[in-house]
Fold these 2 entries.
Entry 1:
Amino acid sequence: LSHLQQQPVPFEGPDVDWFSLSPMLVLVGTALFLLVAGALTPRWPRGLYAGVTAAAAIAAGVLSMVLWDDITDSEPSTLVGDALAFDTFAMFVAIVICAALLLVALVTDDFLRREDNDGPEVYALYLVAATGGIVMGAANDLIVLFVGLKTLSLALYVLAASHRRRAGSTESGIKYFILGSFSSAFLLYGIALVYGATGSTNISAIVASFQGTTPLERNDALVLAGAALLLVGLGFKVAVAPFHVWTPDVYQGAPTPVTSFMASAGKVAAFAALLRVFVVALPFYRDDWGPVVWALALASMLVGSILAVVQTDVKRMLAYSSINHAGFMLVGLEAAAHGAGEVDSGPGVPSVMVYLMAYAVMVIGTFAIVALVARTGDVATDLDSYRGLGQRRPLLSLALTVLLVAQAGVPFTSGFIAKFGVIQAAVEERSYVLAVAAMVTSVIAAFLYLRIIVATWIEAPGDAEREPVALPFSSGLAIAASVAFTLAVGFFPDWLIDASEVTTQFAR
Amino acid sequence: MDPGFPILTALIVVPAVGAILTLLVSKHRPEVVKLVALLASVVTGALSVWLVASFETGEGGFQFVSQHPWIEPWGISWNVGVDGISLPLVVLTGVLFPLAILGADPHHDHKPYLAWLLLLEAGVIGSFLSLDLFVFFLFFEIVLVPMYFLIGGWGYENRVYAATKFFLFTMAGSAFMLVGIVATVFIARDNGVGEITFNLVTLAERADFPLATGRWLFFAFAIAFAVKVPVFPLHTWLPDAHTQAPTAGSVILAAVLLKLGTYGLVRFGLYLFPEAAWWSRPLFLTLGVIGIIYGAVVATMQKDLKRLVAYSSIAHLGFIILGTFAITSQALTGGVVQMVNHGLSTGALFLLVGWIYERRHTREIAELKGIQAVAPVFAAGFMVVMLSSIGVPGLNGFIGEYLILIGSFLAARWWAVVAATGVILAALYLLWAYQRVFHGEPDEDNSAFAEIKPREGAVLGVIIALIVFLGIYPKPLVERVEPSVDALIEHIERRTGETVSEPELVEEGG
């Protein structure tokens, strides 16, 4: 009975460096503020919900940049008892997500008013989802990663169903929820198996458990099974083939600004997690997961480009194109597999980071235009709706053209820089087959973008009388910003490449 | 190097700025739009002429080189320069664009049309001047976008199909080249260069590729250029694109865009991968000769005048391929000269066919008859251009084909023999077409065929003057081309250890 008489040891929480967490705190705080204040006060003046969200996104983004500076001045470290990584990689992800949040908030503003659905809830959900995304990018513990993923996903499920008066939106939410929960189960099972093999869910501890062991001493079967399940779970979130089946349906059904948020912030967060889990936590198994990633990359690029060709709905087209883009990013991850765990980990990770940044901005700009063309009710998303747009809205059509040719990878756009980066990485690691396959699928995918461009500029407007396409200020601002960014990076990519090359110094 | 006026950069920037200025003018002032665009292209043309004047004749290397770091983390710099091989093509581009803008009217939406044309000019000149593989690829690829919109927006009935086919074919070719470029840079780093650089001269002089690797890389480049030229059997996009493109689009496509392919083969094939180019000579010679015969035979059978000229282009470019891959000084000089000649004569032919379409709204040879009787000056202009395209002595087409055949006869005798029949076939299909369209009594539809207009006459006059001048006195062109070609041949000999066979019968001044 002696042990019962011992004094209970008081629980000691880990030290928390609050400032280092400030981007997340700003976003969560704003979300809570919006929910509470929004519930207690009558409807706010137009644009204020979005304005508060945008301000929070800017604040969090700027804080992330300040923290980036702190990290590059000193060393990457971990926070909150090794639960979160405090490195440039995490900050890069946070900045991309904040940029996405800012643009999406602008696009959502007039969308919600057009749909008569304005309120604080959608914005609060965006903020929560963004926080989850940032946590995923920074997670240094698989359980924290899971928490971040769930935070992101639950918010996205609700967001997908947030267009209350449209059945398609509800359907999209339900589909996403069921399939997403299913995939989360895979992820959790994977975490459990890795825990079983290594004795920890902490990434630093997992790496340490491999170090100094011979391959014979490791519990390979468990780790590999766990890695496979992790890949399935994260592959679902990223939307790579063959885990992509939900994407077209959900993208098409969800309210268009939400779709743009899924395709940008959602993909960025999931990809960040994928990179950290595989490149940082499992470099010892890189020869095992590298070939799998190779196959997934090829499958995604083929599925994404070929199936896109037969679509007639622009949102579905862009959904397939996002699968194609995910395949391109996997090409970068495959390149990273060759150098994972080494001091100079090679060009793979930076190339993916550039791609994520470029793609997030392009895709939001594109979906912002899709949202405008979808008109009231958010339903006019077939190709016919674009006919004659070039005559009625030349500037908007020009913006759409720039964003689409950027997605196709035409020079002097960020899309080209992004594609060139991953191809360069693949070639440097001698994955020639993958590099050639990637370029060939980008030609097939170009056909899809050309179809939209043809409908916009060349085909005569249809007979049916349609509501004219409005061009409200905040959406216009978001579109202009994304076009400007796309072209600016296309002409002067130095700074982005430089920044991305710093991100390989992971906290361990 | 004299850090004076960056004329090469200006040649690229002026049309691009012109495109932006054109877009800024109100669309309700079409005459101002046209004036701005024309001025931009004329200034570019004047710059290109000035470039000729200040070009150091007799020098084989690159001149006016201007190099500035651009994307430093990737070892990419803005690097432009001109030598005797690219100079004629730059001038051709500079001269033909204002003529194409003047000579053909799009009939609707002038503003975007002219902006796309000027952007196209910037892209084309940029491709000819780039000495950095990355920058070259940027320009080579960006050219697709304006051309796509020109065909798709201002072309004829089947334009969307033709434009999409053009875009996808060419982009598919470039897909391999992009991987090839990156692979070249990384493999060169480990084989003699020692650093990551996209600089063409550094790579060509210092890289020493393993045999098989060099050949793979060469083919990655060659496929992109072969699509662009186009080399048989990758040519199927060309007749569609030409037939459907608006007149100015066809002119530029034939005169300048196809040269990107042949120029690329010389600059990034022979120069960068001498061994592989030498090794693959039989393949390309054969494809070139097939192109000559195939293009000629198919052209003979065409019912559509524009399609006929398009197929004649395939035949002419077959000659250029033959000249390029014979790898002798004469043949290669002839190839470069022929690039200019083909640009002038086929460009003019497309203009004339466009004018015929303007008047008669048909391109069917069967619907045209007896035009010579009602429009003798028009017919005479067509005759001169056609004879130049056939290669009649005294006009520019002769000198190029002559040099190619002379030069390739010793190095590749049987190919040259077969190719020579192509000259006869060209006479057959062009004269036959001329006979059907211009001779005979005009029927009811053709009797109202309008005579050449002053503006058309001025445009055609400039081209014919050049055709005659180069036919009678080709020395200014040849003496600028030859030193660079000799330097290239010497480079190939040095790198491959082969001795290039030179015919002895041509003695200058002898």
Note: The interface with chain B takes residues 405, 410-412, 416, 420, 423-424, 427-428, 432, 435-436, 439-440, 442-443, 446-447, 450, 454, 457-459, 493-494, 497-498, 501 of chain A (CB under 8 Å).
Entry 2:
Amino acid sequence: VAVVLLLGFVLVPAAFLAQLRSLGVHAPVDPLAVAIWGMVLVALGTAEYLVRPTRAYGPATIAYALAILGYLLWLGARSPLSVTYHGATLALGYGGLLSIAMLVPLLELVSGILDTAEDARRPGERVRLDFPPAAV
Amino acid sequence: MSQRPLGYRASHAVGLAGTVLAAVLVAFVITAGYCATELAPGAPPFGGGRLVATNTVELATNVSVSNPGVYPIGGLVVQAQVRYGGANGSLIGTGLSPSTSVSADSSAILPVTLGVMFGPEMPSVLLTHDARLAAWFWANGTYALVFDVHLTLQGNLTWGAPFFGLAIGVGSPRPASEGSLAYPVSVSFTDEAQFPLVGQLQYTLHEASGTACGNGSIAIGVAAGGSYANGSTSYLASGCSLDGGSVSARFTSSAWLLALPSEALP
């Protein structure tokens, strides 16, 4: 899980920004900030996965979803992506895409709230169902 | 097998929906990025000059957009602006295309018309000299329904002067009636603009002090790209001298009222 998240949140964005730089295009997002956001998301996503067999899973899911929402809002504040290349300037507004993309962490958030509520009402039941004891 | 409580089932379904949506969005962004690289815009130079109002001509071009990808382009509008003297120079003309949509796997033509007004802002040098004018083009549209695209391009517009190389020459005088002098006047130029010129060239001969002391008029009729050379006679009152003088001219018709640059007489 950590490797997949590292790829998706850190390595691929870093490679994309490096590729833009090699083309002489300066993206309006700071690569260091993207890397920091990516590392935070990798840490939270990995933590969510690790605490799945515990009651911390719901709150971890909520924290992860809120962090992704924050990341998308941070990216949205930098829209449009404006690049100048060979005398042409291209401004790409991706606010519409981010609006749709925000549904993903919002759904995660709902899922986390439901899990937190159910875990509080039925302590241990989700763990028994998701991680049944191995048959002897 | 025990039945999972409703809250957990709902949580699982919502989480799964989020995962599916994330996968769909990643696939969408990758394919939209790839298809965007296949877009191929093109624009021939402006041409087809057409007189649309007094002192106003319209130049036109057709911008083509080929969209072989699977995502449409909506609300595509192209604007153009031409200036003399750089970004802060005199505004020569502005243009606009109608809003057009380009469906997936298709192409479209956007007619862009550039209105050029020969008004007070038009530097008179452009009436008699060709030039390369700075042109700016803006394209706005929505790509793949969610991406707002704003493209700015800078280019050049080759300007052909309607009275290119205008020369008004005054020959040697000969005596005329009542003590006046008759001066042969010759007019020549090439219409390098993309529209014809039909009207009257009215000229005034000035003494070195600026006092007008003779005038005349020549009928002009020249097609776009054609050359013109003709002459007439102007009568000056006795006492007038054109030594060190100048000639001013204006072109008039039902559609034109152009003040041409003043020229010094040899």
Note: Chain B touches chain A through 26 residues (CB under 8 Å).
